[in-house]
Design goal:
By secondary structure, this protein is mainly alpha-helical. The protein is built from six helices and four strands, in the order ααααααββββ. The termini are far apart.
Length: 196
């Protein structure tokens, strides 16, 4: 059988057009595929060394970023309602203070402070995150809880870290918010008042 390589087709038939389109689609998919999939093995593991490597590859593929919890706004809205009731917190924050003297603002802040303290003490139990005295030197070992301690200043290297405790931090050890009726609209922080 003799093949003449010098003879080229003079027209593009439908089969060649389909094959060319299919090749371009595969090329685009190959370029755009995720890097993780590109690093996956293409051969089936048959030897003992390949079988030992398989769990590591599978672990790399399975690991996903942590899922974020979606917070329900009901508890936050309930707390705002309680702060408004006891401390007139929203009224104070929404007020334009530029027309008041510092003495007037201070007197109003005292009412807001006392009412807010009452609300927080009634519905929450607070504890210090760190037991050491502020302005003392402390050491944070490797693996310290980063949600409990925020590093500030010149943060370089890895733990253990030695530094000065600027603030003890606060954590809530107990919450006692009142229960809410299902039909209660928590978005109403303070109902409008109409005097008759």
């Amino acid at each position: 059988m003799n093949i003449d390589l010098s003879s080229m087709p003079t027209s593009i038939d439908m089969i060649h057009l389909i094959l060319t389109s299919f090749t371009l689609i595969l090329l685009i998919l190959l370029i755009k595929r995720p890097k993780q999939a590109a690093s996956a093995p293409t051969e089936t593991a048959t030897s003992a060394s390949n079988i030992e490597k398989a769990p590591t590859i599978e672990k790399t593929i399975v690991e996903q970023p942590p899922h974020l919890k979606e917070a329900s706004p009901d508890a936050a809205l309930q707390l705002l309602t309680l702060l408004q009731q006891d401390a007139r917190f929203i009224d104070f924050v929404k007020e334009d203070l530029s027309t008041y003297s510092d003495a007037d603002i201070g007197a109003a802040a005292r009412v807001v402070h006392e009412g807010s303290k009452k609300t927080l003490d009634t519905y929450f139990t607070f504890e210090a995150v760190r037991s050491e005295e502020e302005e003392t030197r402390i050491s944070l070992p490797a693996g310290f809880n980063a949600s409990e301690v925020r590093l500030t200043g010149n943060v370089i290297g890895v733990a253990p870290f030695n530094g000065t405790l600027i603030h003890k931090g606060w954590k809530v050890s107990k919450t006692k918010l009142p229960k809410i009726a299902k039909e209660h609209d928590t978005s109403i922080i303070a109902p409008a008042e109409v005097e008759l």
